[in-house]
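Onboarding guide, step 5: your first structure request.
Type a short instruction followed by the sequence, for example:

Predict the 3D structure of this protein.
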Amino acid sequence: MHRYRQNEVKEEPLVSKNNENLKILFLGDEEYFSFVDAYFREKGLQNITCQRKLKKLSRDEIASLLDYDMVITAGETRIHLPNFTEEIGLYLENHVIYFAEFDLATLNDRTQSYITISNTKDCDIKRSPIYTVGDCMSAYLNALDCIMDDYLKINDCVILKNHKSIEEIREEYMDFRMNFILETEAIIEKISVINDLEHIIRRFVQNYMKKENSRTINGIVFQKTDDTVSASFLYEGKIIARITFYNGLKNIVNPYYKEFNLEVSSGRRNLINLGKRSIYDNRKYIIPDAPSVINGDEYQTVEGIYRKVLKIFTNEFKRVLKYKEK
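The system replies with structure tokens like these:
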């Protein structure tokens, strides 16, 4: 009987370059050179070359890529990885080049990076998006982290310091999205309450205060001037909060922006004028010269006035009707 013994082959990593001899080339915008260089040095990689991006690489420039172990491109530079990795791989023998490229695109509240990854050994192409909260520097940081995290799968000789994995970056973004949605709902709720409050005040002034500039009903003082309408909250005979809306003031970003004046009492119940406040979603952009966006404590004051006014116009609406002008 013939016995066949299967050869045992030890599986080795695709690449065995360490931190000292791993040569990296970055092709991109010059404005990011110092950031990219600092990124790799902070990670413990010293052999980094940054070159200006080109829309198209010449034959000589392509040949120069053979001197590197990793080539990262950003922006308009294109290597066309599917064809290029197979073509250049024929001339490399045992040398493996890892290729990665990414583009950035700003989408409202986030930055999107499309990352394409390949190498000249197996020529597999992987392309996937990641999303980043923040500016382009944050997007660059996350894109480079994703690239290096993937590179460790083919080279376990490189040791990186303080980098985020692809999973961690995606998890961070999902947490941000959930919080962003909750914050959006809270902002919409505040806008709705303030809009409704202004509407009720104006309707009351129009229907029940044709001959009077001030009227008190169930602890709420409604007032009007030539330029404003307001509602004040009374407690033990003293005004402890007042919201004032201006006549003829158009919303700058209708219907997501509104201005109003807010006054609250101090601990001694002295009314303090906080000045103008605004309500809008200021996470994406800031409206020039806009008053401060109402904060949480200030909004609770406004919400208290709103609930009191709303109660008057629901449970006690019949009582209000008797003040209607004949």
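Each response can be followed by summary notes, for example: The longest helix spans residues 166-208.
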